[in-house]
Design a protein that fits this description.
The protein is an alpha+beta fold and 147 residues long. It is built from two helices and four strands. A four-stranded antiparallel β-barrel has the order 1-2-3-4.
């Protein structure tokens, strides 16, 4: 027993036999309307709605990436760059600037034979330090937003 379409013909897709033209029109009816008696687009509406959800999700991900790349990450980078912390190791070393060795806090630039070449934070100049020990406090100045 075949399935009948609204005009009374049997559907070739669902078990009936018709001539070529009727078969093509019936197939397009079944594809467009989801089968006889369904009264709607059937699977096509669900597929279209599914694609819309995927497209909306893809748009949301694209917008989130754009916001992260153009706003959030640059703000975080500038904040990290200007927060007053050293980007290199901070050490306490004996520095001899001609008046005898004095203990100084330095930002390590390079290690050499028996010491460190670094930026003397107190004097604001490059100096050679010996007998260095790591300083746990890596803050070298106040953050720019407190300056």
């Amino acid at each position: 027993m075949g399935t009948r379409l609204p005009g009374g013909e049997q559907s070739p897709v669902l078990g009936g036999e018709l001539d070529g033209y009727d078969a093509i029109s019936d197939r397009s009816y079944v594809l467009d309307h989801g089968g006889p008696g369904s009264g709607g687009l059937g699977g096509h509406a669900r597929v279209r709605a599914g694609r819309q959800h995927v497209e909306r999700a893809a748009d949301a991900v694209w917008i989130a990436g754009l916001v992260l790349g153009l706003v959030v990450l640059p703000v975080l980078a500038v904040t990290a760059a200007l927060d007053g912390r050293s980007w290199s190791s901070v050490v306490r070393c004996d520095v001899n600037a001609g008046t005898g060795p004095q203990r100084a806090r330095m930002i390590e630039l390079e290690r050499q034979a028996s010491g460190v070449v670094g930026w003397d934070i107190g004097k604001g100049e490059v100096a050679n330090g010996t007998h260095c020990a790591a300083d746990d406090n890596d803050v070298i100045r106040a953050p720019w937003w407190r300056s």
